[in-house]
Write a structure and sequence with these properties.
CATH topology of the largest domain: TIM Barrel
Number of domains: 2
Largest sheet: 9 strands, mixed
Strand content: 5-15%
Oligomer: single chain
CATH class of the largest domain: Alpha Beta
Structural class: alpha/beta
Radius of gyration: 27 Å
CATH superfamily of the largest domain: Methylmalonyl-CoA mutase
Number of strands: 16
Length: 554
């Protein structure tokens, strides 16, 4: 297919070209061939170039006096009328007062006054309608939504207030703001653990940690509140008990966009559910299989739970690999690989990037596009560390923008916004909208940025982590009982890896399942295991020490 061409310039005596450049940069992302003529370009030059290049679109800008601009644009419309009549499309960008004058000409197909978001401009350049839309215009599954927003990631934000009424109002406000693609419904702890057991619910903790959903009708009402604006899709965590029944409930009531469930967590080990560790691993695997059978994507929100407890980067990457491996094993076709940056806090940007590159390189060979052998696709999702935002809201805004910019190096398909209020208070609807605007600008600014992933220190750390992680994974594999065919998917083997301290984090001290005996430190920006003297220790040394202890056997 012939590549379409856009010719663009700042018209007449106008020398302001930033808007034209941004327009053409977005056009290139949308697949157009772009020709920029520069500032203060004559009408004749624009028209002649458009004819010579057989341009499908001409974009002009004027940002000076409205009265002068109106006369200039009138002359331009008159002299370009034959191109207009032949089907060439014309777009204009300028200040609001100039745009107001340009509208009267009824010549330009599209006018931009600078208030448009980059994805709105991109939608126009991709031939998508930018007028008022209905639900039919917005994909209601995550994969199609990703394709619609490409090359920008879709945006997700957690939202749930202590009352149902406030959450309903907030969801509608967020949807009408057209800023979020995915509302992650934040339910309170009793909803996640005791939804099907009202006798176990404690009225005193109603609304603790999120919206107190107590019936299917509550879920349906929350979903209906989102049926406006840009019709964001909705999802919720998978709960910590009655997993399959909860999965059926979420799918039926909110059209759950994708499943999010851990591998090792949300049980008695972290006090977020009633199951023991081994039992919960087996139950989580059943949930993966249930969603996989219905072709609903699955995310394992796993590795950051280790990182938030100060685990080493190696344990973080190992958890990420085990997550993807289990998802593939249990029939998931579309896997969302979640990567939480700034986890633990204090991790340097370069080392954070190296850690994510390592886990992506390790899980990439798991992908498959064979309908016979089974399909397994990986979708990248990044986010800021839950524990990394400062309490000061102005400082948190800066952190949100800076971390977002860094994460675009991975070209995520989904960007999970952790709003700047995280360390201060639960996000209100205005907070969500503000955070999304900060993020959108950072994402736009990051387009075309230098590839930070290629930095020598990043690549060196990535290779080191891959080697060390394989050492740890092979040690876990060796812990399997005789007859176990696939140790990385065996609940007993995975439980033993925690009990022995192979998978360990300092904050698991005095835990009934975890050891909490490992020591870690941030050294040169990376989180590493250290010995009693504070010196880095390799996985080989650490594993040998664990296995040498009395009573430990394979």
């Amino acid at each position: 297919m012939k590549q379409k061409t856009i010719v663009a310039a700042a018209l007449g005596e106008c020398v302001h070209i930033a808007g034209v450049i941004n327009f053409l940069r977005l056009a290139e992302l949308a697949g157009w061939k772009t020709i920029f003529l520069g500032p203060a370009v004559s009408i004749q030059s624009v028209i002649e170039t458009a004819r010579k290049e057989n341009a499908e679109m001409v974009g002009v800008s004027y940002r000076l006096t409205p009265e002068t601009g109106e006369r200039l644009l009138g002359q331009f419309a008159e002299e370009a009328s034959d191109l207009h009549d032949s089907g060439v499309r014309f777009a204009f960008g300028g200040t609001p007062p100039v745009v107001e004058r340009a509208v009267r000409l009824s010549f330009f197909e599209k006018l931009f006054d600078g208030s448009e978001s980059p994805d709105q401009v991109l939608a126009y350049l991709k031939g998508q309608s930018t007028d008022s839309k209905s639900e039919m215009d917005y994909p209601q599954n995550v994969i199609d939504r990703i394709h619609l927003r490409n090359p920008f990631p879709i945006l997700r934000h957690h939202f749930g207030l202590p009352t149902l009424e406030a959450t309903l109002e907030g969801i509608q406000q967020i949807a009408e703001a057209n800023v979020i693609d995915v509302i992650s419904l934040g339910t309170d702890q009793d909803a996640q653990e005791n939804f099907f057991h009202p006798e176990k619910q404690d009225p005193r903790r109603k609304g603790a940690g999120g919206v107190p959903v107590r019936s299917a009708e509550d879920f349906q009402a929350l979903y209906q509140a989102s049926r406006t604006g840009n019709y964001p899709i909705m999802r919720a965590y998978s709960g910590s008990d009655d997993f399959i029944e909860y999965a059926k409930l979420l799918t039926r009531t909110i059209n759950n966009a994708w499943c999010a469930i851990p591998l090792f967590w949300f049980n008695q080990m972290d006090k977020r559910g009633p199951w023991d560790l081994q039992g919960s691993i087996a139950e989580h695997q059943k949930v993966m299989a249930w969603y996989g059978d219905k072709n609903i994507p699955v995310e394992l929100n796993e590795p950051h739970h280790w990182g938030m407890r100060d685990s080493s980067d190696v344990v973080f990457v190992a958890a990420a690999y085990l997550s993807a491996y289990n998802a593939r094993k249990f029939g998931v076709k579309d896997y969302i690989a979640q990567m939480m940056f700034n986890c633990p806090p204090g991790t340097a940007d370069a080392m954070d990037l190296a850690k994510m590159l390592a886990l992506l390189e390790m899980i990439e060979p798991l992908t498959s596009h064979d309908a016979v052998k089974g399909e397994f696709r990986i979708w990248r999702q990044t986010r800021i560390g839950l524990l990394s935002h400062p309490v000061d809201l102005d400082a948190a805004r800066g952190h949100l923008a800076a971390s977002t910019y860094l994460q675009m190096s991975l070209k995520p398909h989904i960007y999970h916004i952790v709003g700047h209020t995280e360390a201060n208070h639960a996000a209100t609807a205005p907070d969500v909208i503000e955070a999304s605007k900060i993020v959108r600008r950072a994402i736009t600014d990051a387009q075309g940025a230098p590839n930070m992933a290629l930095a020598p220190e990043v690549q060196a750390r990535k290779e080191f982590l891959i080697e060390e992680t394989w050492t740890l994974l092979k040690a876990i594999q060796s812990m399997a009982r005789p007859g176990v065919i696939d140790p990385w998917c065996d609940p007993e083997t995975l439980t033993r890896s925690v009990a022995l301290g192979l998978m360990d984090a300092p904050q698991l001290r005095n835990n009934q399942y975890g050891r909490g005996q490992v020591k870690t430190q941030i050294i040169k920006g990376a989180c590493q295991e250290v010995d009693d003297d504070g010196k880095p220790i390799s996985q080989k040394e650490r594993i040998a020490k664990i296995l040498s202890k009395k009573g430990v056997r394979k």
